[in-house]
Amino acid sequence: MRLKRITAIFMSTMLVLPTFLVSAEADDGSAFEEKAPQGKGAYSGKSEVVYATLSGSGDPKDMYVVNNFTVEEPGEMTDHGPYTSVENLTDMTDMEKKDNRVTFTAKEDEFYYQGNLDGKPLPWNIDVTYKLDGKEIAPNELLGKDGDLEIEINTSKNDKGDESFFNNYLLQISLTFDSANYKNIEAEDATVANAGKNRQVTFTAMPEKEESFKVNALVSDLEMEPIEIAATPSAMPIEEPDTEEMKSEMQSLSDATAEVNRGVGELKNGIAELNDGVAQLYDGSAQYKNGMNELNNSSAELVDGSASIKAALQQMSESVNGGSGDMDMSQFQQLEEGLRQIAGGLNEAEAGLTALKDNYSQAYQALDQTVAGIPEQNVSKEEIQALYESDADQETVDKLVANYEAAQTTKQTYAGVKEAFAAVDPTLSQVAGSLTEMSGSISTMADEVSSSMENMDINESMNQLQQRLEELSANYNSFHTGLTDYTGGVQQLAGSYEEVHGGIAGLTGGTDELENGAVKLHNGTAKIAESTSSLPDELQQEIDEMINQYDKSDFDPESFVSSKNEKVDNVQFVIKTESIKKPDEEKEEPEIEEEKNFWDRLMDLF
Q: Any signal peptide, and if so, which residues (predicted)?
């Protein structure tokens, strides 16, 4: 009886309790319900993060955009985009999508929603190819493979996409490799870093650049994380580097090249003077050679004439020595005439030798002055090597060195034979003096013969004449012998000088080419000096152009999904390829005993 009463009370309580709970819940909900803001809302800015998934080879697959609004005034707002569907990521309020217009109500300071896209082109074409042991292989065939792996990633502008992102965004391409499976990782122009047990390879593609990157590695049991590509605006301002020291060094280079140009100009002038001196040397040498040839050609006549005089003197001496007291006086007249002819011949020979001596003296003086005009300065091997290592034309430098060596050789050769050249002039003077002296003696003899033809002792005069003729014949024999030796020396000297003159002729042609080469060299150094004179300004100009090329700090981003969207502060891209992974093994989940509710536990009491 007691149990029945308790049961009746409890059952009646249970019947009343739901009504009470419902009423309390209704009252509580009405008391704390937040009323939706009314009117049109406003936002100060929005950002877009574009998430895109690519196949292993880089073909586009899925894409969605997470839009974030910084709310200024809660209320109804509108966004634009060709979304296939939208999802509120902030609260549970509904969103309305009609055509390319999205309407929503924002209550919080920050509002997020996701819009899914289909067929929207990215600003970049991304192409990924794989090679295993040198052979191209599809991504879906790589799982579990071993060998030498090469991954090539090519980025280029997508003509169907928005060009402004390609021109102003940089791409950071990251590949993650498990160190247990990947060895000998090589990636040119990449940053390779450790990330725990993994190795991360990161490439950077600059704005407006189409790039190609390669990674090589030795792989075993291949698995691969997705290739991640982040595209962000290159909006970081580039600070202009301090180039004062570099510009100072370039100014020093400019001054040095100008100094080299001035030095080469002086060298050119010196070579021009050398060429003029060598030309004068050649003229003097030609005159000397011609004089030597004339002297050599007249030597035979001189020797023949001297031999005739020698024979005549000898014949006269023998005739007088063998004569008798009944000598015909007409023979003395012939003797007088013969002596005067001999004296005249000797005078003519003396005049010829004097003229030859004067010509030789002039030619020798010109030769000596010209050779002396060749510079004494010696150019060291180090200076010649420095000239070869400069920017001067190598062919011109070869000519400069060859002509310098030829000039020095000529100067040294002349120094060796100068003594012989100098001895010619005194010898000619001595020979001419001897001829003058003999001519005077013979003339005196003729005068004595003429004056002694009357009132003289024939025998005594003949004895004196015989004695004088014998002395004259003997002396003339010695003179003739010396004259013969002298003419032989002249002939040898004339033959040797042909080679000297030929060398001077070659030197003349060489110095002429040398002067032309020096002119070209000076023109070249002048161009170098001119091109380097503005080098510091050109450096600054190049730096300014480079900074302007990569400094995108003035870029004003636009919406990726619609040009109608306003107040866009930032647009970013997060792009991933599909991973190459083994499927996870399904784990058996332990059975979880279902938690009993209030009614179950209540019924358990009974």
A: 1-26
